[in-house]
Amino acid sequence: MSTLKTGDKAPEFTAKDQNGKTVSLSDYRGKTVILYFYPKDDTPGCTAEACDFRDNYQSLLGKGYEVIGVSTDDEKSHKKFVTKHSLPFTLIADDDKHIVEAYGVWVEKNMYGKKYMGTARTTFIIDGSGIISHVIDKVDTKASSQQVLDLV
Hints:
Layout: E1 14-17, E2 22-24, E3 32-37, H1 44-55, H2 57-62, E4 65-71, H3 75-85, E5 90-93, H4 98-102, E6 106-111, E7 114-119, E8 122-126, E9 132-136, H5 144-150
Parallel strand pairs: 3-4, 4-5
Antiparallel strand pairs: 1-2, 1-5, 3-8, 6-7, 8-9
């Protein structure tokens, strides 16, 4: 899984969000970022995770967190996902896989004996100076925001 760990500098990235706007991790300097990686828009587990962050978004903001989701889906797919589920946070389109590779979450997976490459569901908490303060690699899709809050 991820070779990044607590105390490491979070890899910088610049990519497009669901609205085609260029977003960089450095845009969030001074803020604590929940950077969560998920396999695919509008699939059951990914929808549960996104909706959990949506339902607890105001509480997370109130505690000083910014939420950014990343998958290898494109901007158009993200836009549909955001609209369908009223997601209030940024989704980054990593269709060239630069970010998932930089964070070590592009891994070999195995489903029903078939091996393939995909995104390992992982959440990184990045402090205001760009340092990883926590890595959650066993994400509970229905309680992902609570997992973050339990860390503090």
